[in-house]
Amino acid sequence: MTKKILGIDYGNVITGLSITDSKQIFAFGLNAIPTKKLMSFLSLVIDHEKIEKIVIGLPKTLKNKNAFIEKSIQKFIYEFHKKYPKILIERLDERFTSKMAFDTMIELGFKKKKRKKKIILNEISAIIILQSYLTYLKKKGENKKK
C-alpha cells in the first residue's frame, strides 16, 4: 500500500487538514479541527492512513517576512517531529491560499452564511496547499526527465 501525504493549514484556533489519494495525485479535504486537538487527531490519522510526509503551509507577508503565526507553527513542528521522527515535514508558501479558498467557495455557490464558516475555509486552504505541493512535485519530476 502506497503511503499518503497530509496537508496542514495551521491556525491558532482552527487547523485545516487534507490528504492525498494513495497514488499521491490528488488532495482531498480531510477535516478542520480545533488546533488544541490537533496532535491527538493526527495520532489517529497517521496510524490509520499510513502517512509518510506532511506539508505545512508557510505563512508569509507580502513583504516576504514570516507571519506572526509562524512561531506557533514552529512549536507544533518541534512537538510533531519529537513524536514522529520518521515522518518528513515539508513547508510550502501559503500566501493567498485563504483568498483562493474564499474565491473557490464563491465559485462553488456557497451562500454568504456558509462562507463565513472558518472551518470550511481552513479545510479548502489545506487542500490548496497540498495540491500545490503535488503539482510542484510533478513539475520537479518532469524537469528531471528532460
Characterization of this structure:
The chain is α/β, with parallel strands linked by helices and 146 residues long. The protein has one domain (4-141): 2-Layer Sandwich (Nucleotidyltransferase, domain 5). 47% of the residues lie in helices and 24% in strands. It is built from 5 helices and 5 strands. A 5-stranded mixed sheet has the order 3-2-1-4-5, sandwiched between helices. A hairpin with a 6-residue loop joins strand 2 (14-20) and strand 3 (27-34). The longest helix is centred in the last third of the chain and has 28 residues, at 118-145. It starts with a strand and ends with a helix.
Strand and helix layout:
Layout: E1 4-9, E2 14-20, E3 27-34, H1 38-49, E4 51-58, H2 70-83, E5 88-93, H3 97-107, H4 112-115, H5 118-145
Parallel strand pairs: 1-4, 4-5
Antiparallel strand pairs: 1-2, 2-3
Helix pairs in contact: 3-5
The CATH class assignment is Alpha Beta
- Secondary structure class reads alpha/beta
Largest sheet: 5 strands, mixed
Do you know the CATH architecture?
2-Layer Sandwich
Query: Total domains, how many?
Result: 1
Q: Quote the average pLDDT.
A: 84
As a whole number of angstroms, the C-alpha radius of gyration is 15 Å
Describe the global form.
globular
CATH topology: Nucleotidyltransferase, domain 5
- The tally of helices reads 5
CATH superfamily: YqgF/RNase H-like domain
Strand content: 15-25%
Low-confidence stretches: none
Secondary-structure element string: EEEHEHEHHH
For this structure, the quaternary state is single chain
Q: Got a strand count?
A: 5
Distance between the termini: 29 Å
Q: Which percent range fits the helix content?
A: 40-55%
Strand order of the largest sheet: 3-2-1-4-5
